């Protein structure tokens, strides 16, 4: 392939712009905020699951407490009814009177036992409610931290995208001045190797950092100025300049 030396040198400008674009893309993919957001999202999800479990336990205890309190009320109502019968003097038979007094005593003991159960459930429920509040507060704090990290990510994305758009404009201007066949070869090599063209400096390819052999340097030295030469190691286009050492 033939191309004017000036057009070949434009490939170095294009390669430099492409390097900037690649660095911006890498920076966008590897922003520290991305890993931070993923970690925070995972922690928020775990805490959300723990909150649901704690809320379920607290709900079960609330229902258990309501049932126990209902049992206390039922026993208390029966005891109060029996006490009224006893106090009214309606029961005159000694046997029935003793039976009624025994039932009242039994109901009072039952009520006392049930009230102990209620107190125990209330303590457990209070602890469960406190755990729900603690976990929910941690979840909300982490969610806020994730939101802040997302804001930082979005700000960084906006900055990177702006720089990339500016670089793309510069690239289009440079690429527009390069012959189509030379540009096509450059793009093909860039797709294969990441870099399509590199400077030959001091007898070394700056693309693969390899020092060329004497034979290769003589071959390139004897090539016409408009001939497009390639590095034998990395196959990139070698752009000759006064710094090439030929």
Specify the overall morphology.
rod-shaped
Average pLDDT taken over every residue: 93
End-to-end distance, in Å? 20 Å
Largest sheet: 5 strands, mixed
Give Rg in angstroms. Answer: 42 Å
Runs with pLDDT <50, length 5+? none
Strand percent estimate: 5-15%
Helical residues, percent: over 70%
The count of strands amounts to: 5
Q: Give the class from helix and strand content and strand pairing.
A: alpha+beta
Provide the succession of SSEs.
HHHHEEEHEE
Number of domains: 2
Using the 3D structure, state the CATH architecture of the largest domain. Answer: Orthogonal Bundle
**Order of strands in the sheet with the most strands?**
3-2-1-5-4
Kindly provide the name of the CATH class of the largest domain.
Mainly Alpha
CATH topology type of the largest domain = Helix Hairpins
């Amino acid at each position: 392939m033939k191309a004017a030396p000036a057009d070949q040198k434009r490939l170095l400008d294009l390669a430099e712009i492409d390097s900037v674009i690649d660095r911006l893309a890498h920076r966008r993919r590897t922003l520290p905020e991305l890993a931070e957001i993923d970690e925070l999202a995972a922690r928020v999800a775990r805490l959300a699951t723990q909150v649901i479990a704690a809320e379920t336990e607290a709900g079960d205890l609330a229902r258990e407490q309501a049932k126990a309190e209902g049992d206390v009320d039922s026993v208390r109502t029966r005891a109060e009814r029996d006490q009224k019968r006893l106090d009214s003097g309606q029961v005159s038979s000694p046997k029935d009177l003793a039976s009624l007094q025994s039932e009242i005593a039994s109901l009072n003991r039952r009520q006392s036992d049930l009230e102990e159960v209620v107190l125990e459930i209330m303590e457990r429920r209070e602890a469960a409610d406190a755990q729900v509040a603690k976990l929910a507060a941690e979840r909300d704090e982490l969610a806020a931290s994730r939101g802040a990290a997302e804001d930082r990510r979005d700000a960084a994305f906006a900055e990177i995208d702006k720089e990339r758009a500016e670089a793309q404009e510069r690239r289009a201007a440079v690429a527009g001045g390069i012959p189509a066949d030379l540009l096509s070869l450059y793009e093909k090599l860039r797709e294969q190797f990441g870099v399509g063209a590199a400077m030959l400096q001091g007898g070394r390819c700056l693309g693969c950092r390899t020092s060329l052999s004497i034979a290769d340097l003589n071959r390139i030295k004897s090539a016409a100025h408009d001939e497009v030469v390639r590095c034998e190691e990395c196959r990139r286009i070698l752009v000759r300049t006064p710094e090439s050492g030929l």
